[in-house]
Amino acid sequence: MRGNLKNWQIILYSMGGESYMVVFALTAWIMYGYCPPEGRGVQLLSLATFSVVTTLARIIEAVLNPVVGYISDNTSTPWGRRIPFIFGGAVLTAISLILISRPPVVTGADKLNVIYFSFFFILLTVSSLFMYQPVLALGPEITADSNERVKITSIALFLGVIVGLFNLTQGLAFERLGFANTTLIFGLTVFILAMGPVVSINEKRDVIIRDRTELSPKTGFFKGMSGILQNRIFLLFALANSIQMLSFVTLTAAAPYLLTEVAGKKPGDTVVLGLFFLSGMLVGIPAANILTKKYCKKNIFTWSVLAGVLLFFCMAFLAFLPERAVYPAILVFSFFYAFVFMFTNTVKNPMLADVILLDGQLSGERKEALFIGTHGLIFRTIDSANIPITAALFAHFGYSAGNSLGIYLVFPVCAVINLVSFFIIKNYPLDDQGGFLEGYREKYGYIKER
Question: How far apart are CA 111 and CA 99, in angstroms?
Answer without folding.
Answer: 17
